[in-house]
Structure formats: C-alpha cells, structure tokens
Amino acid sequence: MVLKNRCLRIICWLIMIIFGFLLQAGLGMAGTAESELVFIPVKGQIEPGLAGFIERSITRAENSGAGKIVFEIDTPGGVIASAQSIKNAVFSAKVPTTVFISGQAKSAGVLISLAGEKIYMMPGSSIGAAEPIPNTPKILGSWISDLESSASARGRDTVIVRGMADRELVIKDLKQAGEILSLSADKAVELGIADKIVRNRNALVAELEVEDGVSYRPVEYEPGFGETLAWWTINPFISPILLLIGFAGLITEAFAPGFGVPGVVGLVSLGIYFAGHMMAGVAGWLAVFVFAVGVTAILLEIFVIPGFGAAGLLGLGMVVWSIFLAATSPLQAVISLSVALTGSIVMLYIFIRVLGRRGMWDRLVLGMKLETSTGYVTPKKGMEKYQDMEGTAVTPLRPAGTAEFAGDRVDVVSEGGFIPAGTHVRVVLVEGGRVVVRAIE
C-alpha cells in the first residue's frame, strides 16, 4: 500500500513537471510571436510606375500590420519627380523603415536611400553619383536641397551628401573640385552615411531580429502583371520601339488596299504603348482620345479627302500632342517621336524597294501611264454620255482612279469607299468633267 501511494505521488509529480514545461513553452511561444518583415524592391529605373507600386506597397504593409518595411535598392537612378514621390511616401510611412542596398544606389536612388531610418549595405555595393541631368543651376539647387533635408532628418552628414551631386564642392581628403562623390559600402559606413554592412538578406533579417528583439517573418511584395507591363512599356528604350512599330504599321496600311496585318500590328503596338503608360500613372484618357482623333483625321485625309490639307495637318499635330501627353517627360517624347518617325520612313523606303523588285508595288499604287494611244479620254465637256453606263475599274479607286466604259478610259471617282481594280461599276452622276461611279454588287 505504501509502495502504491509512493508511485502515485511520483506520477503526480511527473505530470506537474510536464505540465509546467508545456506551460512555459506555451508562454515562450506567445512572447516570441512572429512579426511580418516586408521587403519592397526598388530596382531598375526610378519612374512613375515604380513610384506608384512603392506607394501602394507601403499602404498594404501598414494595413497588414507589418512590423517593419525594408526597401531593397539596386538602381542606376531615374526620374527626379518619381524619386521625390517615393521619398515622401517613405517619410510618411506609419511602419518603421529600413533601406538595404544590395547593389547600387545611384542618382535618384540616393534620395530614396536617405529617406530610410537606417541604411544597411551588402559588400561590394555603393551609394552616390547623384548629379542631376540636365544639370542646370535651378535643378541642381532644388535637388541638393532635397538630398540635404533628407540626410539632416535622419542625422546624416549633409556635406558628404551634397558632394554626391555638387561637382564643384571640395571636401578635404575626400573629394576634389570637378568630381562627383560615390562611396563604397565600407566608406559609407565609415563616414556615417550607412549604418552597417551585412553579407546578404538572411544576415539582415538576423541583424534586425537582434536589434528589435522580434522574430521576423520575411515577406516580399512583388509587382503584378499590370505593373510589370507598365514598367516595361515606359522603358526609355522600349517605348520608341512600340511607337515605331505602330507608325510603320499605319503608314504601310495607307499604301495598301483594305486593312490587314500591318494595321493590326500597328494598332496593337500603339494600344500597348498607351495602356502601359496609363497603368504606370503617366498618361490618362486624354492622351488616348487626342491620339484617336488625330489618327482618324489622318485616315480621312488619306482615304476620303483628296490631297493633303487641314485634316492631315491637324491629325499629325494631335498625334504628336498625344505622345507628349503620354510620355514620362518632354525629352522622352522628343526622343520617342524622332526614333519612331525616322524608323518609319526607313522601313517604308525598304518596303517600297522590296515590293518594287518583286513586282508587287504595282498592285498597291498606279504605275501605268494614261495615254490617248491606249484609249484614255481626258475629262472634257460632253461626259454626259457616260451617265448610267456600266464598266470596269481599271485601277483601284481611292476614291479617284480610272474606269473603262465601252472601250474608253475615263477619270472617275467613287462615291467615297475604296473600290478594287477589276470591279464592275456604274456611273451614277456626271457633273461637267466629274464622273462619279458606284460598285455593282
């Protein structure tokens, strides 16, 4: 009986010990609950699309209750206005922010880096070379003010930061006149521009966990399909190519009967151009509307209105205006238009030469001489005899061309639509020397 009671006591003690360990483990787990560490990539060109993505990502992190935001930077720079928007968003964030420079933080990337509460850098990374382009006194002064105010707000050396943009500034033992300052990771930490060097992202997470006393769960926000398309579309190297394809397609269609593959490709290319700029927040519906009106005016000039006059000039002007409305900057608009128009002219020239060698050009344009020896009759009085006569279109009518009636070749004009060569036509109106025909179904 004594042995039985002793065994019961031992079992009770064991149960209490195990329960205590479980309770302690439970309390320990509750005390070290994970917090979300959000990584937001700041990579590639700094432009309006990236600025919009970062602003939305900051709001998303705030709404999800994230513990900290890390901006992972690797950029050669970009648009100053976009960098300023990102800087303002970082300073306004309701969540603690950290910058992690994994590659380079050049130009506009410097301003974004200085907005972070702390700056960590990987070995081999760099920060600096923030001279604005174009470097006018007004732009330089405003840019330096932004850099210095951001550095001052985070307790960083404003003189060193100024040296990253001001070529004429002299900093003893660091920078001579005529140089632009750029710092390696080691030098940036030494001068207090950066806080610490970490070997990779995992090391950064471990460092932040120790500093903050929090167990972090890393989460990376990535751009969606629309944002990726927007960034790709407004790339300064891609957007001129899209315009080139669009213009070349429409110009080709202007010389070909009907509407075919070149026109479809051209419209799709232009659609991608404007859609991407709209998704990036650069362009609005006004740019699309102006472009559509311009193209319509040009098409009317080509297919309906003889010659090239007010409608054509108005159309060209509106197309150019729409490109300026959609571009990230006036300079980018000029570059894109120059590349697109020059490339379109070259492609059209090659197109004509190739078709000419293959004997196909005559199918698209009138290449025959209209001589009296072949039965051609010039417009003159007494054309009433052709009223209600039926004949055949000798050339394509766009809307003007030539048709044959009872062996006579006569200058005619269609009622408005395109009529291919070889179509049976009937004269519906004769006004002096003007003969109007209609296709016979």
Which characteristics define this entry?
5-stranded mixed barrel, 18% strand, elongated, 14 helices, 3 domains, OB fold (Dihydrolipoamide Acetyltransferase, E2P), 441 residues, alpha/beta, 8-stranded mixed sheet, 14 strands, 2-enoyl-CoA Hydratase, Chain A, domain 1
Strand-residue proportion:
15-25%
CATH class of the largest domain: Alpha Beta
Strand tally: 14
SSE arrangement, N to C: HEHEHEHEEHHEHEHEHHHHHHEEEEEE
Domain count: the total is 3
CATH topology of the largest domain: 2-enoyl-CoA Hydratase, Chain A, domain 1
Taking pLDDT < 50 over at least 5 consecutive residues as the criterion, the unreliable ranges are 17-32, 357-361
What is the helix content? Answer: 40-55%
What sort of overall outline do the alpha carbons produce when their principal axes are compared? elongated
Structural class: alpha/beta
How many helix segments?
Answer: 14
Please state the average pLDDT score. 81
Q: For the terminal residues, how far apart are their CA atoms?
A: 117 Å
The CATH homologous superfamily name of the largest domain equals 2-enoyl-CoA Hydratase, Chain A, domain 1
Write a structural description.
This protein is an alpha/beta fold and 441 residues long. It folds into 3 domains: 30-223, 2-enoyl-CoA Hydratase, Chain A, domain 1; 227-282 and 320-362, no CATH class; 372-439, Nucleic acid-binding proteins (OB fold (Dihydrolipoamide Acetyltransferase, E2P)). It contains 14 helices and 14 strands. It has helices spanning 2-31, 48-64, 80-92, 108-115, 137-153, 158-163, 185-190, 201-212, 225-233, 238-254, 261-279, 285-303, 310-326, 330-357, and strands at 34-43, 68-75, 97-106, 118-121, 126-128, 182-184, 196-197, 215-220, 376-377, 390-393, 400-405, 408-414, 424-431, 434-439. The strands form 2 sheets. Strands 1, 2, 3, 4, 5, 6, 7 and 8 form an 8-stranded mixed beta sheet that branches. Strands 10-11-12-14-13 form a 5-stranded mixed barrel. A hairpin with a 2-residue loop joins β11 and β12. α4 (108-115) runs parallel beside α5 and α13 (310-326) crosses α14 (330-357). The protein is elongated. Residues 17-32 and 357-361 have low confidence and may be disordered.
